[in-house]
Prior knowledge:
Blueprint: H1 7-20, H2 23-31, H3 39-46, H4 50-62, E1 66-71, E2 74-79, H5 82-95
Antiparallel strand pairs: 1-2
Helix pairs in contact: 3-4
Amino acid sequence: MKNDMKDEDVEHVAALLKTMSHPIRMRILCLLQDNELTVGDLRSEVKTSNANVSQHLTILRNKQMIASRKEANYIYNRIADKRILELISTMKNLFCPAK
């Protein structure tokens, strides 16, 4: 049987999926699909504290999954890697029935 992925690719993808697997981080990524959002915007959507959202954003930023920019007193977060958008879209198509 042919293995199409190198070991380092398998490790990278596994780490990426592990990072995404936390429900709050997955929700944050889903929310960031279409818009840049602040910590406050995200907090109100995921119903947790600013500190908790910030911790999860730090994890996503450290994995280069999201990026941020500062404007006045606000920091706007966005998905940095377009492959994440494709992955979320594929997961929605496969696992979220259309209503």
